[in-house]
Amino acid sequence: MGVNIREIVELRETNLGDLSGKIVAVDAYNTLYQFLSIIRQPDGTPLADSSGRTTSHLSGLIYRTTNLMEAGLKLVFVFDGKPSKLKADVIKARSERREAAMQKWEEAKVLFPKDAFKYAQASTRIDATIVADAKTLLTFMGIPYVQAPSEGEAQAAYMAQNGDAELVSSQDYDSLLFGAPITIRNLSSPRKKAKLELVELKALENTQGIIREELIDIAILVGTDFNEGIKGVGVKRARKLIKKHRCIENILKSEAAIDTSAGIENYRLVRELFLHPDVTESYDELKWGTPDAGKIKELLCEVHEFSEERVGKALEKVLIRERGQKSIEQWL
Amino acid sequence: MFKAKIDSTMLRECIESLTAIVDEGKFRLTESGLKLRAVDPANVAMVSFELQRDAFDLFQFAAEEASSEAESDSKAELELGLDFVKFLGILGIGGRDEIELELDENVQKLYTRMGSLAYTISLLDPSSLRKEPKVPELEFPVQVILETEVFRRTIRAAEKIGDHIVLGVDGEMFYMETEGEMDKLRLGLRKDQLILLTPGTVHSLYSLDFIVAMSKGMSHVENITLNLGKDYPLRLDFEVAEGKGKVSYLLAPRIENE
Asked: Which of A66, B66, B193, B217 could form a disulfide with B71 if both were Cys (CB 3.0 to 4.6 A apart)?
């Protein structure tokens, strides 16, 4: 998913403690996708209650998110709206891949149990129920969310540019292209030891002299969710081309081997989509509330059969502040 | 370069004092020994730890030569990122032998040997760990020194009753008080029942979760020093490694909002 430009971006490691007090706009779909694909049983079956309703996403939300809240992060989830028309091909391909993976998973469960998990992960999908569940739980947890008109990452990046958030959390690098000043990766990873990486747009400019517009052109050459990219052009080659010519127009003029017929036909549209994505300026003022332990337990423990003890412990960490617990920082 | 030998029971007690607050952290290694300062994920409790070199049976240390001129003023010090919970487990399987430690900075591994057991620990990248916290400047009006066992016993009882505890001094009396939904507990000790007490009138409320964790970090300690104030953090100090190590816990209070 997203653009693979990891090789050229500047990554800086960080840790949870240093993010205390920061407002983080979370790419909700990306995060739910991670929860759903990783939080599974060994044979790849997602967590579910006894009625067969998937609960992997709720498990991720309650346990991982409370860890982040405990560390003092203020999260706002940003949900995808309608996908851009340019994404139609990608969506179709993804859904075919998912179907294929689903079939392979069914086979593998019986024949090659070792591979089952991998196929199961590839069959992950997010449906309306999952989104609705997630929104309900977030509300109970006192975490605000914003509904994006189109791409969630674009909306999150806009909010960061607007100063309403300090970081955008996503596993993709698309948020950079959408103009997020700082993106954080692995924040929502349910794997505890996953390293937190910060990617700063400014750092890329300072160290490599690549500005956002140029990064977008590099991504288009390599391929994005909205265009295929040129076959045989990897991220390093693309960077070389852009460093030499500065933009796709110039490349087309001077490099005979590259023309628009090869996967970058719509480059102007794609560039426009990254530079001026469909976002909304009219989202509610972000407000963080106190988690409602009663409602959370009712939803998770009574309806979905979560362990009362484990949910209680997770909430305890967050609610400790509500009962007057001070932080050492107040005496610094 | 770092190479050391130390009594493994002694080292275990040191690490246990850390895991009371944090699961992982970074030691600062210098010529004079080991140091660490870390806060818990919620910024409620802090541990400061120091172990002198003469607590070790062997202690060899040399900081890496500064690799470039820009770093030439860097201090003679190494950082060692460690998963303490894991380390404690390793010390557990090693038994009571002396433990040998050797650091390989290049591959970020710590080689350990206890008797016939060799265990190579992958170190944690220090940049992935929290920065060392600042220490608040605090002035405590009151100090109490008492036997650890009395304190620990009271905490164990309090834990069964409620989720918070008052520590206070009233005149020449030190007290600990917990009230739950059903029961109530109060321990009062006069000055002559304590090792030391500065008279005063203060009390603060603390979360028992943290105090319980701390009391597990000092199970082999004879005496502890409590530094108290009114609605103020608690500083709890004690010595480890036969007086060659120092541990200091800081705990932010709970303040009841009406």
From this structure: B66
